[in-house]
Structures are given as structure tokens and as C-alpha cells.
Write a sequence for this structure.
């Protein structure tokens, strides 16, 4: 009996140690989870350089949940800009059944870190040269100023007008991303065609964004951004008049790629899309452009 008791004691001791180990694992689980969340937060650290995004986190942290209209009033930003920041913070946010925004677990952790001062109030993070180059390649600093679209709307209209005049002077048929030399149309027709292309781009992109992502509003900001994105293709006819045809062909290819990036960026700022979504829409428009030219027999 004593041996049996001894064995029982050993079993009890072993089981107690097992329970202690399990308790330790249970205690460690939240710690590991929190560490994983902290790592996740650090991956998005650069997002917090923008004061609007920091303010969104602070508003949601203090008010628990808020509707889009109220959030926009708090931020005093355009519809597209607010959507853009919300999209960038999508890993930290969720929505209830009334479509009001609130912080998820990761967002609450981020708010706590901001509130406790674990993250510096101003994130002085040095930008790499490649990052600065990328921002200017996408004209992000310019598009960011379209928060008040009326300020840059005249610039946008001027770019479109210069493109229309340039295409007419160079006597090239504008077909959005493409130009065809030796046009048989008159000055007014070519100029009207250029303007029609970009107005059509505005309408089609607006439609696609609503159908794909249910984004509405911010039309003036979107139009302003698209006009600015037209700059490379508006400039091309003037260059075309002073270079050989072979040089112009290769130059147009580079301009087409740049314009595709600019249109994607314009959609991001104009409608508040993430860049990957903006690229999907701009590539769709490019595809439609090519298909239309094939149907018209301009591309074989």
C-alpha cells in the first residue's frame, strides 16, 4: 500500500507540475499575442507619420465608434482623402452592422501605445532616397494638396487645355494612352477629342470605382487629380514636334508607363483607394482603351 501511495503521490506531483506548466503556457499566450501585435504595429510604423492617421486612431480610441460623416467633420478633410487614410489603416479598424468605424484589437493596442507615449509624438523617421523618389514619381505631394480641390482645379484645367492645343498643333490623334501621327482631323476636332478622352476617363473610373469598391463622392477632387495625372501625355505632343519619329515612339512608351502610375495615384487620392486598388482600375481602363483601338482598327 505504501508503494501505491508513493506512486499516487508521484502521479499527483507530476499532474500538479503539468497544471503549473499549462498555467504558465496560458499566462505566456497573451504575452506572445501582445508581442506579435507589437511586431504587427511596428510593420505599420511609417503609416503613423501622417498626422491625419494618428488623429483617426485617437478619435476612435476616445469615442469607441464613429460614422464616416462625423469622422470627416472631425478631420476637416475631403471624402477621398478620408477614405484613403481609412484604407491605409484597415488592419487596425473594423466596422459594426451600422457601418460605423471602430478599433479592432490591434487598433486598441496601437491607441494604448500612442496614449502611453510608447510611440513618440512626432515620428522623425528618415526617408530613404528610393522612397522620396517614389513619392515624386507618383506625384504624391502634389495630389495631397487636392484635399481642397478648388485650389488646384485651375492647374488641372490648364494641363488639359495645353494637351488639347499641343495635340492639335502636332496634328496627332489622341486616344487616351496613345497618339497616332498624321491626323486627318482639323484643329478643333483634335482638341475636342483630347478633352473628351480625359473626361471619359473620369467618368469610366468613377463608374468602375463605385462598382468595384462602392466609393462615391469626392468627384471634384477626382477630376482635379485626373487632370494633373494627364501632364505627361499632355506634354508629349510638344516634344513630338522636335524629335524624330523613332525617338518619339520610345519616349511615348515611357510616358505611357508613367501616366499609368499617375492615374493610379490620382485614383488613390481622388477616391481614397489603396495603391493596389488604384492600379487595378487604371489597368482596367488601359485594357478598355486597347480593346477600343483594336475594334476601331487602329491597333493590330
Amino acid at each position: 500500500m505504501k508503494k501505491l501511495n508513493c506512486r499516487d503521490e508521484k502521479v499527483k506531483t507530476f499532474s500538479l507540475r503539468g497544471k503549473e506548466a499549462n498555467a504558465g503556457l496560458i499566462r505566456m499566450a497573451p504575452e506572445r499575442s501582445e508581442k506579435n501585435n507589437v511586431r504587427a504595429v511596428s510593420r505599420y510604423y511609417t503609416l503613423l507619420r501622417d498626422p491625419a492617421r494618428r488623429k483617426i486612431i485617437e478619435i476612435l480610441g476616445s469615442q469607441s465608434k464613429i460614422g464616416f460623416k462625423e469622422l470627416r467633420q472631425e478631420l476637416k478633410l475631403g471624402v477621398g482623402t478620408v477614405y484613403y487614410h481609412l484604407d491605409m489603416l484597415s488592419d487596425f479598424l473594423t466596422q459594426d452592422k451600422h457601418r460605423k468605424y471602430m478599433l479592432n484589437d490591434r487598433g486598441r493596442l496601437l491607441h494604448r501605445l500612442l496614449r502611453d507615449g510608447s510611440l513618440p509624438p512626432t515620428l522623425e523617421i528618415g526617408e530613404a532616397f528610393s522612397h522620396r523618389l517614389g513619392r515624386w514619381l507618383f506625384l504624391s505631394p502634389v495630389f495631397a494638396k487636392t484635399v481642397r480641390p478648388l485650389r488646384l482645379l485651375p492647374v488641372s484645367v490648364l494641363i488639359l487645355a495645353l494637351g488639347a492645343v499641343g495635340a492639335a498643333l502636332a496634328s496627332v490623334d489622341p486616344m487616351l494612352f496613345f497618339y497616332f501621327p498624321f491626323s486627318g482631323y482639323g484643329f478643333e476636332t483634335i482638341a475636342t477629342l483630347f478633352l473628351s478622352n480625359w473626361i471619359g476617363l473620369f467618368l469610366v473610373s468613377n463608374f468602375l470605382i463605385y462598382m468595384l469598391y462602392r466609393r462615391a463622392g469626392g468627384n471634384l477632387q477626382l477630376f482635379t487629380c485626373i487632370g494633373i495625372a494627364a501632364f505627361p501625355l499632355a506634354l508629349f505632343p510638344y516634344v513630338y514636334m522636335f524629335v524624330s519619329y523613332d525617338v518619339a515612339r520610345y519616349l511615348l512608351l515611357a510616358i505611357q508607363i508613367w501616366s499609368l502610375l499617375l492615374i493610379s495615384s490620382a485614383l488613390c487620392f481622388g477616391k481614397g483607394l489603396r495603391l493596389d486598388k488604384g492600379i487595378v482600375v487604371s489597368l482596367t481602363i488601359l485594357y478598355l482603351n486597347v480593346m477600343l483601338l483594336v475594334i476601331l482598327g487602329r491597333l493590330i
About this structure: Confidence is low (pLDDT under 50) at residues 6-29, 120-128.
